[in-house]
User: Fold this.
Amino acid sequence: MRTVRVNASTVYDVIIGHGLLDGAAELIRPVTTAKRFVVICDDNVADIYLDKLETSLRSGGYSCDSFVFPHGEASKSSDTLTHIYSFLASMHYTRTDAVIALGGGVTGDMAGYAAGTYLRGMDFIQIPTSLLAQVDSSVGGKTAIDIPEGKNLVGLFKQPKLVIIDTDTIGTLPKDFLVDGMGEVVKYGMIKSASLFDKLCGCDIDHIGTIIDDVIYECVSIKRDVVEADEFDRGERALLNFGHTLGHSIEQYYHYTGISHGRAVAKGMELITALAAEHGMCDDDLCTKLHECLEKYDLAIEVEPALSELGEAVLNDKKRDGDTIGIVVCDKVGHASVVKLTVDTFLSYLR
Ligand code: NAD
Ligand code: GLY
Assistant:
């Protein structure tokens, strides 16, 4: 069992290890005075892990209820959120009780938002079960729901009191979601850690299980550093968006169906690195290295739209600031920076 301490506005630990769900109650005890918990999770995760968590909580002397919703991004909505609020109200939850998110990023984002807003804030614990949630969304306090106009448009920062990463849960994750999470893992290597990137290049999707604990620990440590430097996303945290500007454009082109977020981001990383090479910001060699690494994780994909067709979505990018847009560029493996361009210049690059 390893611990990464996050010194954000709330100081909390991310505990990483095998079989932690069985002992969840004892891990939670030191971080909250709550005696009653609502576990929020989707139906897939509930089928596999809810019983285990509830057994641990009850045998630890706690009382708990569960709110289970249909899996998938479509549930990260104001409708489901309203159901959560109604559930908490009808069960007479109070501010001294706590919310536990058990599941992937959809669950963590929505449960965190509910915990941050119901009764103006309840204690919140993250138990992420997808790779993406373990290496990214459960750490750093970003919570949100989607609205018809866009993903994650309504949200707040709500740091958890504790994150419990039971790495055994990766064993039941469908391969497509494992691949998706690997997109973010490769991103961490590209922006912050040449040693992580090299480790990934020496492995592949079929053997990642042999190094996954170390990989998760390294990614969480990187995310911790970034969050500690810029908790509220006004500077350095933007580096986590490497590949995401064009990745979002690709997802939008496909109407968020048929291409996963991780694969879209992987393509976004490739396209932006190719543009960077074309404009003298990195060597061509970096494109080759990135492509070869992504191939090992089923992340090197072809997409239909030409670069010139991805400009429209860029105009709606959350990272746009008036006439300028911050584009994250890697100049070498393990090092990235934000390059500010006028929107017109960036669009001309795409053309
Ligand atoms: P998800 O929560 O939908 O989980 C993916 C799928 O895997 C679901 O079908 C789920 O039921 C299943 N699943 C999860 N864990 C499992 C397990 N151990 N065994 C079997 N099945 C399992 O999606 P995700 O990919 O985890 O997260 C995507 C979401 O995260 C998006 O909404 C995105 O906006 C958000 N996100 C948030 C942040 C942040 O900083 N808050 C960062 C990145 C992504
Ligand atoms: N996943 C992006 C962030 O946490 O800022």
Summary: Residues 42, 44-45, 48, 71-73, 76, 103-107, 109, 129-130, 132-133, 136-137, 140, 142, 151-152, 169, 172-173, 177, 180 surround nicotinamide-adenine-dinucleotide (ligand 1) (CB under 6 Å).
